[in-house]
Design a protein that fits this description.
The complex is a heterodimer. By secondary structure, chain A is of the alpha+beta class. Chain A has helices at about 90-105, 130-145, 170-175, 205-235, 245-250; strands spanning about 25-30, 35-40, 45-55, 70-75, 115-125, 155-160, 165-170, 180-185, 190-200. Chain A has one domain (about 25-250): 2-Layer Sandwich (Ribosomal Protein S5, domain 2). Chain B is built from five helices and twelve strands. Classes of the chains: A alpha+beta, B alpha+beta.
């Protein structure tokens, strides 16, 4: 199988170039009960994120008298992957929840809400590689949608390696033959890195290339995040409508 | 685990020294604490190592048994890594099921071993689809004074390198040394107010903004990374930590043979 993931024109199995993202759709404010929410379709990934809070912190002993806690729970639903995933947290999702919480905690002005918890729930409805990045991307839109004061929204993307070549945003088929995986999340305005993991095999040159692709892609994703918020909250009238009706207007297919 | 309490005096002390380029224990920014590794520490284990990294004390053991392979890797042995932050090691550790800290520790150690292909899992196949060797790496923290990632990783590598597959016990011929192909090394650094410090002590970890663990192989190539804590790192800082890990990796590698 290896050696044919990239064709002679440098195109990948889904026709993308090495530094090309999958199609990404982001929608803010998709759930009624949540204080903030977002839906992300990223290639074949489907991800929902909801934010509750700031609210009373549970468990109590985790309360911090100086700031809010950002508690993220990343979860894959049972039928989101080809083999049924046993419901409930596993070790992988506990780790992902932890690093996403840490990345989001940096973005939120936690000192404004001492003793509280900002709870972020990420549900992967359909998984196709890169779910932690799609989840974090969705979560920061949901936080903004909840009106929680933040330094910025955080875009996230993974860079991988197939056929000895660094490529952006592996899809599932590529990921199965991936030689390396390097998810990052950055603050585009400052270039600060909030999430970084890596596994596989990369030389220093490949790492530098990966950072070039990753930072570039984060700029684009950031723009999509901002666009999603603007669409949700823009009050300009469409076709003579005086009042805003963002929800109906935003109905998305699939 | 909630972040452990830190007195303002201590915090200020660390910051003040750091602004003069100094550390509390007098080390340079890229200097590891004294390391001692004692292998074959526990006889009942197939391989083991007790690692002391300054005051941090970690015991790692390898147990092996036969079992059935995973369906998607029918001709490969199984590697599983677990970490226990037992209450003996720190007032902030609690007994009970693994929390997110011990899960992260175990998974970062596991990733470094797995992704560096240190163990040739194909060589642990007995009968494809039916029977393979399963290799359990268990990390126990005995005394916690910071940088568990590197202490545990050194311990895991040292324990695996001295492990003997108990073939005779299972009627699979003679015992043989666990085949290893490379010696990965992890180096962990923290960022405190934009200073980078390798091998942080517990006090340094408590005031740290961000943490990065970098696992490299003999060629200095990257095999695994993990950023932690709720602060940020610049790309320059990441590069600095990677380059330092490549450099220090060469020295640390000598300690595990």
């Amino acid at each position: 199988m290896e050696g044919k993931m990239i064709d002679e024109n440098g195109l990948r199995i889904d026709g993308r170039k090495a530094d090309e993202l999958r199609p990404i759709k982001i929608e803010a404010g998709v759930l009624k009960r949540a204080d903030g929410s977002a839906y992300v379709e990223w290639g074949k990934n489907k991800v929902l994120a909801a934010v509750y809070g700031p609210r009373e912190c549970h468990p109590r002993h985790l309360q911090d008298p100086s700031k809010a806690l950002v508690q993220c729970k990343y979860n894959m639903i049972a039928f989101s992957v080809s083999d049924r995933k046993r419901p409930g947290p596993d070790r992988r999702s506990v780790e992902i929840s932890k690093i996403i919480s840490e990345a989001l905690e940096y973005a939120v002005f936690t000192e404004y809400f001492p003793r509280t918890s900002v709870d972020v729930y990420i549900e992967i409805l359909q998984a196709n590689a890169g779910t932690r990045c799609a989840g974090l991307t969705a979560a920061s839109v949901a936080l903004a949608d909840a009106g929680i004061p933040m330094k910025d929204m955080i875009p996230s993307v993974a860079v991988g390696k197939i056929d000895g070549q660094v490529v952006l945003d592996l899809c599932k088929e590529e990921d199965n033959y991936g030689q390396a995986d390097l998810p990052i999340a950055v603050v585009p305005r400052t270039g600060e890195i909030l999430l970084m993991q890596m596994d596989g095999h990369m030389t220093m040159d490949e790492f530098n290339k990966a950072m070039e692709y990753g930072f570039g892609a984060c700029e684009k994703i950031y723009q999509l995040q901002k666009d999603a918020l603007k669409r949700r909250y823009a009050v300009e009238d469409v076709e003579g409508l005086e009042e805003d009706a963002p929800r109906e207007q935003q109905d998305m297919e699939g | 685990m909630a972040r452990a309490v830190m007195s303002d005096i201590k915090r200020d002390h660390i910051h003040k020294l750091l602004s003069k380029g100094k550390r509390v224990d007098g080390r340079t920014w890229d200097e590891f604490r004294q390391i001692s590794i004692e292998t074959r520490y526990v006889e009942s284990a197939e391989g083991s190592a007790r690692v002391k990294l300054g005051n941090t004390d970690v015991l790692v053991g390898v147990k092996m048994q036969t079992g059935t392979p995973f369906e998607d890797t029918p001709d490969k042995g199984v590697l599983a890594t677990n970490a226990e932050l037992i209450p003996l090691a720190s007032p902030t550790f609690e007994s009970g099921p693994p929390d997110e800290d011990s899960i992260e520790l175990a998974r970062v150690v596991d990733r470094g071993i797995r992704e560096s292909e240190m163990i040739d899992l194909s060589s642990l196949c007995i009968t494809p689809k039916e029977e393979v060797w399963m290799c359990f790496v268990d990390v126990y923290v005995l005394d916690y004074d910071g940088n568990l990632f590197d202490a545990a990783f050194l311990g895991a590598v040292a324990a695996l390198k001295t492990a003997v597959v108990p073939a005779a016990t299972y009627g699979k011929g003679e015992n043989f040394p666990l085949p290893t192909k490379s010696t990965p090394i992890s180096c962990t650094a923290v960022q405190i107010e934009n200073s980078i410090l390798l091998d942080p002590t517990l006090d340094e970890e408590k005031v740290a903004d961000a943490r990065l663990t970098v696992t490299t192989d003999e060629n200095g190539d990257l095999r695994a990374m993990q950023k932690g804590l709720d602060g940020s790192l610049t790309l320059e800082q990441v590069r600095k930590i990677i380059e330092t890990s490549q450099k220090l990796g060469k020295e640390l590698r000598k300690l595990v043979g």
